[in-house]
Amino acid sequence: PYLYLSKLINGTLVRSSGNIDGWEYMLATSYQKIDELTYDFILRKGVLFQDGTPFNADSVIENFIFFQKDPFVYSDIHKRLKKVTKISDFQVRFHLHKPYGMLLNDLTTINIYSHAYLQKRGWSTGEGSTSNSTQEPGAYGLGPYILVEGFATGRYQTPTIKLKANPYYYEKGLPYIENITLFTELTSKEAIHMALEEEGSLDIAPIPFNKKVETVLSKYARLYTK
To answer: For residue 135, which phi and psi values (nearest 5 degrees)?
Structure first.
């Protein structure tokens, strides 16, 4: 559950996408490869963190300083990245030790946190966790939702997690769902009962293949296949 939660509450310079590149712009709006070791990114203007503080080049610099002190090590970016410098209030430059073709891919996983959060917890994922800001509720990120109750890490999670729409989210008109409750520990039997036999109890759930007929016949459910 932590991966879905992290992408709902956090923002990155670029985010994962189903397009041919595998990524699309998020907090950055464009980039330029100056040479094999240098990349410039233009940042989105007018963006606010979930606590209302502004996002800018200083935010990116601060996050990468903390990241380099205690990075994740499941990719090679902690060895390839030399430093990130500020060109202007909305332009940053990435300097590499050696060429790295996975830079854009890795940037989809490096969340940008508020100054208050970094001062409180740093960028460490913490013992027993794979995603740091999903460990506790708070207005720490730049994503469309704020974590208001519960948590989910790589190893542990609460049975329910509650989210609310981020009023400062930069994409106008989004998110259009105000509140979300995630159930992280339902059995298939419990999920089927809630989805097929209780009105308004569960809006979205995966259904086992052998329950297609019951789903179609349920007056509370609609079946989508893909």
So the answer is: -80, -20
The answer to whether residues 125 and 72 touch, using CB atoms and an 8 Å cutoff, is yes
53 vs 65: CA distance, rounded Å: 19
| 153 sits in which H/E element | none
Stated pTM of the model = 0.89
d(CA 111, CA 127): 18
**What stretches of 105-159 adopt beta strand conformation (E)?**
145-149
For 161, the token pair is: 């997690």
**Which pLDDT tens digit goes with each residue over 40-65?**
999 999 999 999 999 999 999 999 99
Say which amino acid occupies 72: F
Q: Assign residue 148 a region: left if phi > 0, alpha if psi is -120 to 50, beta otherwise?
A: alpha
The residue type found at 105 is N
Give the Cα separation of 25 and 6 in Å (integer).
17
Alpha helices in the chain (DSSP H): 2-9, 57-69, 77-80, 103-107, 115-121, 188-197, 212-217
**pLDDT mean over 108-131:** 79
pLDDT in tens, 86-101: 999 999 999 999 999 9
Q: Which two tokens stand for residue 193?
A: 């009962």
Q: How far apart are CA 2 and CA 212, in angstroms?
A: 28
Give the DSSP H/E element, type plus range, for residue 140.
none
